[in-house]
Amino acid sequence: MSRMFRRLALxxxxxxxxxxxxxxxxxxxxxxxxxxxxxxxxxxKSGGTSAKPPRPPASSSRTSGQSNAAPASIDGKWWTxxxxxxxxxxxxxxxxxxxxxxxxxxxxxxxxxxxxxxxKRLQFTFSDSSGRSGSGWLEQSWNxxxxxxxxxxxxxxxxxxxxxxxxKWCFGGNRSRVRTVTHNARGEFRTIDEYNEPGGGHLExxxxxxxxxxxxxxxDFDFRANRVNWASGFFWTWCGRN
Length: 242
Hints:
Blueprint: H1 2-24, E1 76-82, E2 88-95, E3 98-105, E4 110-118, E5 121-128, E6 133-142, E7 145-151, E8 158-163, E9 167-171, E10 178-183, E11 188-192, E12 198-204, E13 207-212, E14 215-222, E15 227-230, E16 235-240
Antiparallel strand pairs: 1-2, 1-8, 2-3, 3-4, 4-5, 5-6, 6-7, 7-8, 9-10, 9-16, 10-11, 11-12, 12-13, 13-14, 14-15, 15-16
């Protein structure tokens, strides 16, 4: 009996020792610092390729620096405003791209000019009653200005510039104060103002002079602004041919 009791006691003691060791182990795994968990966010790719590409710029119907706008008609009367062509007026008649014209010189001579408009240039040939002829081109830089070179067998680098003077001019830009201007081949011009009062003066190269008795007032053409600036401080602006 005592032997069986001792065996049983040994079995009980062994069970108790094993339970004590198992209970002493910590729950949840290792006690040293675990490795950090990887984040769920993927790293950004170099160059931002994960983002949506930018939209291309909208296409434009215009090409930079190019214009398809047609030049204004040169139909009507022009004054030779400077250079070696000779004091004259030219009356152009334009029919589409074809242009013809009559030249009236201040000394009474006459001539003809014909040409074709290419872009803003008039490619022309001319001849006159003095036996002179030639060819060249005139560029319409502004509504009131034509200019360019010409040549013939005697002249290699001639020039010809013209100004549109005949038409309507608004005093101070006011369309209720219109001056109607006409001129002849000698550069003499006449004006009629809004009160139907006459005036006059003369053209001298690129300048215009108003005359009232012995008084004379000089004006400069500002082609880009389509105006005449007078020495007294006032100005006219171009109001058109009609």
